[in-house]
Every structure is written in structure tokens, then in C-alpha cells.
Design a protein that fits this description.
TIM Barrel, 8-stranded parallel sheet, 12 helices, globular, binds NADP nicotinamide-adenine-dinucleotide phosphate
Length: about 290
């Protein structure tokens, strides 16, 4: 199952995220995911596990061209020269010579300068698609009016508790593919025990996580669930076999709380928290 990006590149609609997968187990976890059938792997320089992802890519036995590798430049890597160097650093750690998708991780810092570096790397054929994360609709409209190449992907928090219908419509209008991060909202706020999702799961004889993923897939989003457990990786990937009907979709639509569960960059304390994380001594040496 693939989505076609605005530049014609085919992106798998379900992928595997490695946020909070410790470096020590990450190679094995990513190897398991690839063996199970995942082809899109989503990492970031700030996750500090690109080297382990790289080892898995090299030893998994699947051709590089069959994989779709995404990584991201973090806030301290914004600005033209910093982003160019960050790209090279990530490629080195991942032991690959091109990226399928490179993303600006946050709309913070000199992300316009960084974007110009991404545009140049894209022109040189070193990145197949470029995109952003955590850009709300206002920011994406403004950004698209001020860049040479529009982002092909916007990776955003997107799950039944935060459905962002208006923003998705705007992104569709502009030709930007939405990619759902934390498609389970990390299981917070009762996501895995929602009675109406449980009801739908019983009706289709499947699981709650499968319904959650399939709902986002049917809305056209790419999903990148994370799990360190093989049986859950299998379960999540099998969401592609499911088909929800109109009634199911309507029922899930009622669960929207209209506010993020995980990250709200419109809140000063959140932006402070992001910068506090950045000032973590380990990250500053990336
Ligand atoms: P998530 O995928 O919503 O949830 C992961 C949590 O759900 C883990 O605790 C996992 O536990 C559990 N889980 C997974 N499958 C399950 C299943 N079938 N049954 C029960 N529990 C299950 O959260 P996320 O990792 O934060 O988000 C996914 C990916 O999005 C990340 O890995 C990362 O690649 C990306 N992301 C991007 C940004 C950004 O700013 N761009 C921010 C956050 C995340 P176990 O691992 O123990 O199985």
C-alpha cells in the first residue's frame, strides 16, 4: 500500500517509527520490523539511534531500493550550513548514500535556512523527497508561499483524539502528504480502551490498534506506529487488511478532542520544554 507524493515518489502507507527505541536494542527491533514486512523506517538525529538503524539496514538482506528511509534534522541543526552537515552526519550514521525522505523536525530555529539546504540536496538527487514536521496549517501556508520547493510531506500528531480535519483538507489542497506520528497517541488518555473503537474492533474481529491505524490509512495518512514487540509489529501491519465502513468512520469522528495529546507548539511551556530537551548535554554534541 503506497501513497504517491507530489513529485511522483511512492511512499509506503504504513511504516515503522523508532522514537524511544534504545540504541542497545534498536538494531534487532528494526531487523525484526523489516523481516515482518515494514519497508518505511522513521528515525531522527534526536532519537540517537541512527547508527543502529543503519546496521539493521545493512544486515537485513533487503535491497536498499526497497526500503524507504526517513530521518530528521533537529533544532540545533537548522540554518543552511548546519542542515547540510546534519544531512551528511545522518547519512554516515545510517551508512547509506541517499535518503528517501528528510524532514525538518520542528518549525523552530532557522528552518528557512535549513530548507534551502534540503532543496539543494534534493536537486542533487541525494534526497528523494523533502518535508517538514509539526507545521500547523497557518505555518504550512506561509511556508509554501516563501520556498522554492514545497514540502512533499508534513509529519504531524494525528490520531482519533486529534483528527485535524480542516488542516488535512488544506494539506490536500496544497498537495502535501500527511504522515501521522504517534498514531496511538502512545496509548495515552485511554486510547487503547476507547469503548467505541472496541465496539468496531469486535464487529470486524480485529484489535483496537488495528482499527486506529486503519482509520488513519482510510483518511489518506501515512502511519508510523512504534513497537518493540514482534507480535505487535505483525498486528499493526495487518491493519492494511481491514476495511472500515462509513458508520465506523463516523463513530471514530466523534472522538476528536480538537487538541493535541502530545505536543502543542502554540504553548510557551511546550516550546520551553523542547529547548530544555535540546539543552540536554548529550544532544548538543550530535
Ligand atoms: P505510538 O506509535 O503512538 O505508540 C507507541 C506505543 O504504543 C508504545 O508504547 C508501544 O509499546 C505501544 N504499542 C504499539 N503497538 C501496540 C499494539 N499493537 N498494542 C498495544 N500497544 C502497542 O507513539 P510514537 O512512538 O511516539 O510515534 C510513532 C512514531 O512517530 C515514532 O516512533 C517516531 O518515529 C514518530 N514521531 C515523530 C515525532 C515528530 O515530532 N516528528 C514525534 C513523535 C513521534 P511497545 O513498544 O512496548 O510495544
Amino acid at each position: 500500500m503506497y501513497r504517491t507524493l507530489s513529485n511522483g515518489i511512492q511512499m509506503p502507507q504504513i511504516g515503522f517509527g523508532v522514537f524511544q527505541v534504545p540504541e542497545s536494542i534498536c538494531e534487532q527491533v528494526v531487523t525484526d520490523a523489516i523481516n515482518i514486512g515494514y519497508r518505511l523506517i522513521d528515525t531522527a538525529s534526536s532519537y540517537q539511534n541512527e547508527e543502529a538503524v543503519g546496521k539493521a539496514i545493512h544486515t537485513c538482506g533487503v535491497n536498499r531500493e526497497e526500503l524507504f528511509i526517513t530521518t530528521k534534522a533537529y533544532i540545533q541543526e537548522m540554518g543552511y550550513e548546519q542542515a547540510r552537515q546534519a544531512f551528511e552526519r545522518s547519512l554516515r550514521k545510517l551508512q547509506i548514500d541517499y535518503l528517501d525522505l528528510y524532514l525538518i523536525h520542528m518549525p523552530l530555529g532557522d528552518y528557512y535556512g535549513a530548507w534551502r539546504a534540503l532543496e539543494d540536496l534534493y536537486d542533487k538527487g541525494l534526497i528523494r523527497a523533502i518535508g517538514v514536521c509539526n507545521f500547523n496549517a497557518t505555518r504550512i501556508i506561509d511556508f509554501c508561499n516563501n520556498v522554492r520547493i514545497r514540502p512533499m510531506v508534513n509529519q504531524i500528531e494525528l490520531h482519533p483524539h486529534f483528527q485535524r480535519n480542516e488542516e488535512l483538507a488544506i494539506m490536500q489542497d496544497i498537495g502535501i502528504q500527511p504522515e501521522a506520528w504517534a498514531p496511538f497517541a502512545e496509548g495515552l488518555k485511554g486510547m487503547f480502551t476507547e469503548p467505541s473503537i472496541q465496539e468496531i474492533a469486535e464487529k470486524h474481529q480485529c484489535t483496537i490498534p488495528q482499527v486506529i491505524l486503519r482509520w488513519n490509512i482510510q483518511r489518506g495518512a501515512v502511519v508510523i506506529p512504534k513497537s518493540i514487540h514482534k507480535e505487535r509489529m505483525v498486528e499493526n501491519l495487518a491493519s492494511t487488511d481491514l476495511l472500515l465502513d462509513e458508520e465506523d468512520m463516523k463513530q471514530i469522528a466523534t472522538l476528536d478532542k480538537g487538541v493535541p495529546s502530545m505536543l502543542d507548539l502554540s504553548k510557551p511551556q511546550e516550546v520551553r520544554r523542547v529547548y530544555d530537551y535540546l539543552n540536554n548535554p548529550v544532544l548538543t554534541t550530535l
